[in-house]
Amino acid sequence: MLRQADDGGISGFIRIRKGATLPRHRHIAAEETYMIQGRMDLGDGRIAQAGDYLVMEPDEVHEMVAIEDSLFFVTAHRGVEWL
């Protein structure tokens, strides 16, 4: 379940299977993520796991690789630029 706003922002639940990748990207405004299940490698030495709350600052480049089947809720305002 994902909602996209008129300004390109998104909010909703994302389920990703073990080994899947969300490619390098950045957000025009801040992104907030709450990990509900699983573990994700953020590509910068950090591992996010169930219960973690993450904030990616505007223009912060990041990617995510699922270490386990994962479920998270994300809110990102004003769109995504895929790199």
Summarize the entry for a quick read.
Helix content is 0%, strand content 59%. By secondary structure, it is mainly beta.
Account of the protein in words:
The chain has 83 residues and is an all-beta fold. The protein has one domain (2-82): Jelly Rolls, CATH 2.60.120. The chain is built from no helices and 10 strands. It has a 5-stranded antiparallel β-sheet with strand order 1-2-9-4-7, with no helix packed on it. A 5-stranded antiparallel β-sheet has the order 6-5-8-3-10, with no helix packed on it. The chain is globular. The model has no long low-confidence stretch (mean pLDDT 88). This is Cupin. Residues 4-78 form the ChrR-like cupin domain. It holds the Pfam family Cupin_7.
Note the main attributes of this structure.
83 residues; mainly beta; Jelly Rolls; five-stranded antiparallel beta sheet; 0% helix
Low-confidence stretches: none
Please report which band the strand proportion falls in: under 5%, 5-15%, 15-25%, 25-35%, 35-45% or over 45%: over 45%
CATH architecture descriptor text? Sandwich
What is the H/E order?
A: EEEEEEEEEE
User: How many domains in all?
Assistant: 1
Number of strands: 10
H/I helix tally: 0
- Name the structural class: mainly beta
Rg, alpha carbons: 12 Å
